[in-house]
Design goal:
A: about 280 residues, alpha/beta, five-stranded mixed sheet, 11 helices, 7 strands, B: alpha/beta, TIM Barrel, six-stranded parallel sheet, 15 helices
């Protein structure tokens, strides 16, 4: 049994996998540590020296697929990829396809990774900081997979020349107006900046959120499907959700108006005078 | 009035418009540029409200003062609601603030009709123009188009907005006459034609200034009168054909405070709206026609999705051999979607499809089982009558406890 640690880096894994494959070492004989956790039953056999005789041929697309799937945090993170690589390089391309047992797990991981990147694009909330040399906008986010670096490029196009920072419990990114800097271990200073920022104008968004909701169409199940509860705690509107749900339930709401609006004095308009 | 008060009134007034899409815009980026915002054709849902609807854009009315008296509308002139009016600058401020926070991907602006259709349209355009020109905003803009406005104004709007929409409101001229007496089907379709022509004119002219690159959409209110689903979907089909609409949105009539007697007091079942969206999807992406889904007037079944209902009416087509059938037919099997169809076609190039492959592809096997054949599977249910299958496959609602006060 060969036991390897790639420090959860795709490029390192790729070098190791190439070496293994060139010696045609069967996937059942290799395991990788992930997140620093070492296989209990691993014995200390090393990667074979030098490149072996086997010339692996794989489709170009496979590399991108493997890199994407590698961002998934979970069991067998790296050995699953090696198994796919092994089968494809031995002529079995179904290992990449959703119809196959291994392929479907591979595709599921890619889908989860893409979904998590999309969650980043959707649910990051920037707060403006007082003017100084550092970031102008900061956000705290807790992604479930290693998507921060690749997915946060999205914000360069969105935010233009502004300087922004996204801190997570693990890694962090800072865009200084010109380039994106990724730190595998998010500096404590970044984390504090993102978590301890004042937001004096946050009320406007909360007001919008509670008034665009139609209580007559309450459907919390659908909402939770799209906006998993694990994100609520980092979304400013998250604290409003339980209240809005219970208000809509107990009110036996028949129409769509928010209660704050229903209580206010209305104004009928005479014909031909609808101008303030 | 404070900005926050206006926002609460004018967001509340805008919630009855179902559309919140921010997709279909061309690629724009602010990387290395002054200004703000990007678009890449993909919409982003930045939040969800507890009604399960996505929040993608800042969706507000410029004002909810309105000269019209559309019976189904909370903002009609005879409605007793608090009124407010934003200045164009205020809408710009809000849009940019929410955008920088990453709360929205752009703006969806509509308005009650004040003074005149042209005046109202000019105000809407002014907001878009301020955003695009003064603030170099590259995010998504959707402008509601006032049908009676001068075509020249609609053309101007198309140069700033990614999407324009004219609400058809109700599926027939007669319903419109009864419930929205100030609106006319003629001018609504005229406005759609103006947008359609604008989009077509720049279609193959890469150098021409952009015109509503994300196309146009419309909204129909369902359940405000007794128009049936067949009429609704035939009318939607005609709109897709005549004006190349990107989307028709169906908005279940939502009862409003101080509802006039001309409209129902209760909402139609939300399931009806859901079935209409499913059927609409079959029209847009699966190659179905409205005539295939309806044999005559009537509603879609509430207890069964329209594809399954169609399959039960057309048993002669089934069971289909997944190893041989054309992709467009595979997509017509209930429980098998477009994505699964693609995957099946990719897989069968490599090897023959087996029953267990389907289980892995996350299709709805219970629905699909009677309708396909694989190399190791032939459905026992192939001979079962449609009526019996209907009994087995229809949705059974969970028993519900009644409210204490009925």
């Amino acid at each position: 049994m060969i036991h390897l640690d790639c420090d959860d880096l795709f490029d390192t894994w790729r070098q190791q996998a190439r070496r293994l494959l060139s010696h045609e070492i069967d996937p059942s004989l290799v395991s990788w540590a992930s997140e620093g956790v070492i296989d209990l039953f691993a014995s200390a056999e090393d990667l074979p020296e030098g490149h072996g005789p086997f010339q692996a041929r794989i489709p170009l697309a496979l590399l991108g697929i493997l890199e994407n799937a590698a961002r998934y945090r979970g069991d067998q993170r790296w050995s699953l990829l090696y198994e796919v690589l092994w089968r494809v390089s031995h002529g079995d391309r179904t290992a990449m396809l959703a119809g196959d047992k291994l392929g479907s797990e591979l595709q599921r991981r890619i889908k989860q990774v893409q979904r998590e990147a999309h969650h980043l694009h959707a649910f990051v909330r920037f707060v403006e900081r007082p003017a100084d040399e550092g970031p102008q906008y900061v956000a705290w986010h807790e992604p479930a997979h290693d998507i921060l670096h690749s997915a946060s490029e999205h914000f360069i196009g969105r935010m233009g020349q502004r300087r922004w920072l996204i801190a997570t419990p693990r890694d962090g990114v800072y865009y200084d107006g010109q380039q994106l800097i990724h730190q595998r271990q998010c500096p404590v200073q970044w984390q504090q900046m993102a978590q301890q920022v004042d937001d004096p104008h946050g009320e406007l968004w909360l007001t919008y959120y509670s008034h665009i909701f139609n209580p007559a169409r309450l459907n919390p199940k659908v909402m939770q499907g799209h906006l998993p509860a694990r994100f609520w705690k980092n979304l400013p509107e998250g604290v409003l959700i339980p209240g809005l749900i219970s208000q809509a339930r107990t009110g036996k709401q028949q129409d769509g108006q928010a209660s704050g609006i229903a209580g206010r004095a209305g104004k009928r308009i005479g014909q031909g005078s609808a101008e303030k | 009035m404070q900005l926050i008060d206006k926002l609460s009134i004018l967001a509340d007034a805008a919630k009855y418009d179902a559309s919140c899409a921010s997709s279909g815009a061309p690629k724009r980026s602010s990387e290395g540029k002054s200004g703000l915002g990007a678009s890449d054709g993909m919409g982003i849902c930045h939040s969800y409200t507890p009604d399960g609807r996505c929040v993608s854009l800042l969706k507000v009315l410029l004002t909810n003062f309105c000269l019209y008296d559309c019976q189904y509308c909370v903002n009609r002139r005879s409605s007793d609601v608090p009124r407010a009016r934003f200045t164009p600058e205020e809408v710009v401020t809000l849009t940019l603030d929410f955008y920088r926070r990453n709360c929205v991907s752009g703006l969806f602006l509509s308005s009650g009709i004040i003074r005149s259709a042209d005046y109202t349209m000019e105000q809407l355009i002014r907001v878009a123009k301020l955003l695009r020109e003064d603030h170099e905003f590259r995010g998504y803009i959707h402008l509601k188009t006032i049908p009676e406005a001068d075509p020249a104004l609609i053309e101007e709007a198309g140069r700033y907005a990614d999407r324009l929409s004219v609400n058809i409101e109700l599926p027939t001229a007669l319903s419109l006459q009864t419930l929205a007496p100030e609106k006319q089907l003629g001018s609504i379709k005229q406005a759609m034609q103006t947008i359609y022509t604008g989009v077509q004119t720049v279609l193959n002219e890469p150098r021409a200034p952009k015109f509503a690159p994300a196309g146009q959409s419309t909204q129909m209110i369902v359940g405000a009168d007794d128009t049936d689903d067949s009429t609704i979907l035939h009318s939607a089909q005609a709109l897709y054909g005549d004006f190349r609409l990107r989307r028709v949105y169906y908005s279940a009539f939502s009862p409003i405070p101080n509802s006039p007697k001309s409209v129902p007091l209760a909402a139609p079942p939300l399931m009806r709206e859901h079935r209409l969206y499913q059927a609409d999807f079959l029209l847009r992406s699966y190659g179905f026609t409205a005539g295939e889904l309806f044999k005559g007037p009537g509603h879609l079944a509430l207890d069964m999705d329209p594809k399954l209902a169609w399959a039960l009416e057309n048993r002669a087509v089934f069971p289909l051999d997944l190893n041989r059938a054309e992709a467009s037919l595979i997509a017509r099997i209930p429980g098998i979607g477009l994505r699964t169809t693609e995957r099946l076609v990719a897989l069968r190039r490599q090897r023959r499809i087996r029953y267990e492959d389907l289980a892995r592809m996350r299709c709805v096997l219970a629905k699909a089982k009677p309708f396909f054949i694989t190399s190791d599977y032939h459905p026992q249910q192939a001979e079962v009558t449609s009526h019996l299958l209907y009994q087995q496959l229809r949705d059974r609602p969970q028993p519900q406890q009644m409210g204490l006060w009925g």
